[in-house]
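thread: overnight batch results

M.L. [08:02]
morning all. the overnight job finished for the chain we discussed friday. pasting input first so we're all looking at the same thing
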Amino acid sequence: MLEVGWDQVFAWRLGRQFLTDPAADGAEAVARRLAGVQAQVASAAETAVALRRGVAGQDAVADALAAGTLVKTWAMRGTLHAMVPDQAAAALSLIGSARTWEKPSWQKTFGATPDQVTALVEAVSTILADQVLTRDELVEAVLAEPGFTHLGEQLRSGWGAVLKPLAWQGALCHGPARGTKITFTSPAHLIPGWTGVPAPDAAAQTLISAYLGAYGPGTPEAFDAWLSRNSLRKTVVRGWFAAIGDALTEVNVEGRTGWIPTEFADDLATAALDDAIHLLGPFDQYILGPGTSDTAVLPAEHRAKVSRTAGWISPLVLVGGRVVGTWDRDADDIVVSMFGAGRFPKRALSAAADRLAQALGDTVLAVRES
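M.L. [08:03]
and the structure it wrote out:
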């Protein structure tokens, strides 16, 4: 078993996630490395990618979505993500394998039986096979089909609860925005070479390897929490890990056991402390990967400052890869709030603010501590 410390883990993660060495390629390379970029808030996804590319610009994700080299769909934890197509297909397969829409609680809440969901998948697949529709247009087309009239309110809901099972089965994804309106289409219509949603056992190695390659060392439980909020059976997820075999290496991190892709074991073992300051945007994958409940990266007593009401994830301040504060923007100022006593070195904090300003396309941002 490989033995490492948390300083090595965080240094390795910072490097793997393009935070110490920016990506040379586009948004697709960043999304692939991160196993998806949360895109509930489009500007947050753009910020996450721009920070990791080290170049100004807030349209890289939008451009990749328009080109079909990224796909936007309801993936991890039922939230919208921008993903490369093969990883998206794998995520949809594994999330869909939980069959959450077959649970009595889901049926009671959303008023659709498993048979009705199956019928919806067939109807929507046909409707969107060769066109892009707004939500209203899609709902109108679905309600024109027999058997769905009672689902009108749920289909129109901005939360998309009834549409998510359709996405997980490959019937729809988000299409190019039409002004301020979102659209939907079939992945096969939008994405060149889309091959459909694979079987879960085939999908597992793709997504587990991607997850551990960005956020490892990790456990089956951490992977499932990131993927489905622990909706999958523990024995199934552990079986997926076991099936990967020697391609994973077991790691002991100061008493906590996890796994990492074997190809990265040497890099992790030789990773050196990186005590640079990094300012990351809201909903950043750096914390969403391990989860805000991981006390190694975020002390439990400060979790509520990061994971806030209504699911909002605060912009982060990292030192040595650990979350040590949050920040907010006040006009042209970045206002940093530390968790503990003391102050940041001004030069290091200014350098982090300069990187953030470049990613946001601002000439300069002043930084101050609250």
